[in-house]
Amino acid sequence: MTKLNTPILVINFKNYPRALGRGAIELSKVAEKVSRDLSVSIAVAPPQPTLLSVANSVDIPVLAQHVDDVRTGSTTGYIPIESLSRAGAAGSIINHSEHKIPHEAVVRIVEMLREYGLTSVVCASDVSEAEALASSEPDFIAVEPPELIGTGRAVSKVSPEVISRSVEMVSIRSSSTTVLCGAGIVSGEDVSAALRLGAEGVLVASGIVKSDDPEAKIREMAMPLRL
Ligand code: G3P
């Protein structure tokens, strides 16, 4: 199992045009270079069709952006966990606010990922969802207020109490779950603020993937994560 060490920068490529096809490999190699240069833990979550290619191209952890609660076999178009495992993925983001699933499915998927030795990064929209989903004891819970996603208004500055309360409530429900945060994080200072609030890493998308200079932006966001 490719462990996600903390503190960590997780880059969610979503389906932004720059990250489609070979672009996912190129951007992942940039992230790998920064991870190596700064000795900082960085993981990437490329578009689903590129998972195998990206996992074969870089040594940093590669996450799926979603996985389905299905087995292998006649499940046309779905993504079973076995396919992630065979593609070399380290784990999966689950329940992202742009791809939400029922909580009972989250619980089953976290358990199935654990059976495969894969990492679960469960997304929560607010403190109460983070607290509820912590009961399934995922490896990570990423709290991301949907209204801040893509705005450049960092959750760590606009809603710091969401992070600090999520850290507090998750620690009560699960001693094995690490809290990350995301939404609007676009600078190194936003990352530093998240760490001060108790998060052990961040999820970032547009601030990096839509940047004019992704390498410079990854470096900027990785610097506060250096041990
Ligand atoms: O998964 C992280 C993502 O939803 C955050 O989006 O563009 O605000 O960094 P963004």
Question: How is this structure best described in words?
Answer:
By secondary structure, the protein is an alpha/beta fold. The chain has one domain (8-225): Aldolase class I (TIM Barrel). It has helices at residues 22-38, 51-55, 81-87, 103-115, 127-134, 155-158, 160-173, 188-196, 206-209, 214-222, and strands at 8-12, 41-45, 63-64, 91-94, 119-124, 140-143, 178-182, 201-204. An 8-stranded parallel β-sheet has the order 2-1-8-7-6-5-4-3.
Please outline what is shown here.
With 227 residues, the protein is α/β, with parallel strands linked by helices.
* Number of E-state strands: 8
Terminal-residue CA separation: 23 Å
Any idea of the CATH topology?
TIM Barrel
CATH class (first level) name: Alpha Beta
Task: Describe how the helices and strands are arranged.
Elements lengths: L7 E5 L9 H17 L2 E5 L5 H5 L7 E2 L16 H7 L3 E4 L8 H13 L3 E6 L2 H8 L5 E4 L11 H4 L1 H14 L4 E5 L5 H9 L4 E4 L1 H4 L4 H9 L5
Parallel strand pairs: 1-2, 1-8, 3-4, 4-5, 5-6, 6-7, 7-8
Helix pairs in contact: 1-10, 5-7, 8-10
This protein binds SN-glycerol-3-phosphate (G3P).
Tag the structure with descriptive keywords.
TIM Barrel; eight-stranded parallel β-sheet; 227 residues; alpha/beta; 8 strands; 40% helix; binds SN-glycerol-3-phosphate
